[in-house]
Amino acid sequence: MKFTLKNKIDENELRQVLSLDRQTYVADRCVSFRVCNAWLKKNPEIVCALKLNEQVVGFFSFLPLTERAYAKILSGEMNECDLRAADILPYTKNSEISCLFCDIVIQKEFRDAEAIIHLTNQYEKLKNSLAKRNIKIKRIVALCVSKDGIKLANRFGLKFIKKNKTDSIYEIKY
After folding, report:
1. pLDDT tens, 89-98?
2. What is the C-alpha to C-alpha distance for residues 135 and 7, in angstroms, rounded to an integer?
3. Do the Cβ atoms of 58 and 20 come closer than 8 Å?
């Protein structure tokens, strides 16, 4: 299959991303179009879409957060649905950031090795792009709601911190 990746998505692609999100997670864990669009206006590089023939079949979200929002995510006081544009940071040259690895979602029929390899490779490319801009990632938190999410967090080197009522919280510090 000929997958393509897009680092800066438009509104149509955002609608497809959010539709895929709603197919994967329970409704109270899905961010609205209005909220996610506001995040993208603050930082257009936070969602990477995996596409096949102009259709989004997967995506990941990587959100640079304010220290206050990061602390609340890490403590379990809030999750991604509680975030607002004020909690999202732009990628600014010569800065240090703390990030939330928010989602990695792949449409069921494409959950094979090829699709996940494309998304994880693109995640590494994003981190390399940030490093080239002298943007240092201090730490990353991930909220895992599935066995696959936990497996991926472990593969990325994140370590288990704690479990709250809905998530397993993982973190890595650099």
Report:
1. 999 999 999 9
2. 17
3. yes
- Whole-number Cα distances in Å, 3 to 47, 107, 113, 164: 16, 13, 13, 36
Cβ atoms within 10 Å of 4's Cβ, excluding its own: 11
Listed range (35-49, 71-85, 147-161) with the worst mean pLDDT: 147-161
Q: CB-side exposure of 52: number of CA atoms within 13 Å? A: 13
Q: Is the pLDDT of residue 18 over 90?
A: yes
Work out the average pLDDT over 14-22: 94
Backbone angles phi, psi at 104, to 5 degrees: -140, 115
Q: What's the rounded Cα separation, in Å, for the pair 89 and 17?
A: 21
The CATH architecture of the domain made up of 4-173 is 3-Layer(aba) Sandwich (3.40)
Is residue 42 a contact partner of residue 90, using CB atoms and an 8 Å limit?
A: yes
> What's the CA gap between 107 and 8, in Å, rounded?
20
Scan for tokens 């703390």, then name that residue: 98
